[in-house]
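Running this now, will post back.
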Amino acid sequence: MKSTENPFSVEKPEESSGFLLWQVTNLWQREIKKALKQYGLTHSQFVLMASIHWLSLKKQDVTQIILSSHTKIDPMTTSTVLRTLQQKNLIVRQEHLTDTRAKTVELTIEGVKIVKKAVVTVEKFDTEFFALLGEKTTDLNGYLQTLLR
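Update: finished.
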């Protein structure tokens, strides 16, 4: 029976999907941070660099807005992180050829080298982290995609 002192709808913390997701996300991010330390990258920097590389391989024109949408990182944070990557000489930003309001983003040669190594490291970590789920990893990915919609 619910009392006015207890606003919780669950009996145990393990029954709260949000709390469990928060815990797993924190564990996963903490370990990703350790894995990326050797490359001198934050997780946000890695995600943006990996996305630039991914979109470039798909022959897409990469702009800050496209990156923000692709990564689900808000535009202001995207811009701030890209500025840091530019200062590290890992990306270049330049005016878009046809849209004067947009900036295109490309990895430098050094940026490509680093991101290729970092992707291998992160994918290896992800494989190990999610190995406990076995074939259910595909189901998890489907559920997460549903939530993102």
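The first strand starts at residue 91 and ends at 95. More later if anyone needs it.
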